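DM between two lab members

TW: hey, do you still have the Lysine-ketoglutarate reductase/saccharopine dehydrogenase entry open?
JB: yeah, one sec
JB: this one, 379 aa:
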Amino acid sequence: VSLSGHLFDQFLINEALDIIEAAGGSFHMANCQVGQSTNAMSYLELEVGADDSAVLDDILDSLTSLANPTSGHGIIREKTDMVSLKIGRIQENDIEKRYNMRKKSMILILGAGRVCQPAAELLASIGSISSGEWLNSCMETEFQENNYVEVIVASLYLKDAEEIIEGIPNATAVQLDVMDYRSLCKYVSQVEVVISLLPPSCHSTIADACIKLKRHLITASYVDDSMSKLDEAAKSAGIAIIGEMGLDPGIDHMMAMKMINQAHVRGGRIKSFTSYCGGIPSPAAANNPLAYKFSWNPAGAIRSGRNPATYRYNGEILHVDGENLYDSAISLRIPDLPAFALECLPNRDSLIYGDLYGIGHEAATIFRGTLRYEGMISA
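TW: and the structure you got?
JB:
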């Protein structure tokens, strides 16, 4: 199945993949060419599969209707947003050929905390397929099909890294003090991507090594001034340094931008933006005085409760000093989950995200909040 047109800015690709998944089908992205300007069209080829021929026929009919301006989707599309169909069989020898053409990628994870193990497991599993899974692998992403990943987990204490990689294929544990710049560069030079799970104070040193050796860097931490200043150097080196790629900040940004972009595409404006996020344990596990479990640096978690906060509410800019942050907590209840007794703290400077999200000029309220169970603040 080939699709061409303004696939991304009109969310046509999202609708097409939703149709396939909702019907119980599967897909493999065989070719994708993204338009490089507002007026340029994008092109996508999908190999669509289903266990039942009737299901496959329904999927193809729905995809064809998606391109029809009178299909009832509520959006009139240009004639360039057409869906053309190509149906063929995937031969097993083609699948084996693709499998054998895979290339190795290497990723360095710095830090062996609680979030390291699931990251290492996921990355090391990419490309680790058996012959019986060839067909399924062809329905995965292009990266998974053509690559397999080796992971290096580095920690100040070798024992911690060894515990992380236990039972994980394609993973190696090493001892590394990132303040030893020569040793840091030694391991950074061996990989394509570095993921830093270390405290923010370490990131500028790591970023400097990545820029020097032209290796990409990903962190889950907020982008501070020291990292922002490296923007031009990273661009000159031809690498990406991507911060705020965790839950909060990270996934919340992606969800926010998806909703904001959808509203703007439909000609809407954002009058108020409020985002709540928090890595809280399940109620059964919230069994200590804090009703909280540390999945990251405990000292960092405590210090976050002393960060000053700024936000806009009904057009008025409000500022909370770090020493008064806990006192500013407000009770929050979720209508569909009344048993959850939560408290909300303003989360750092919300106003900078108004500009980054493209809503600073239109939203009277811009607020990002951190959620905790009721009682943690007073504890």
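TW: got it. The first strand starts at residue 2 and ends at 5. The mean pLDDT is 82.
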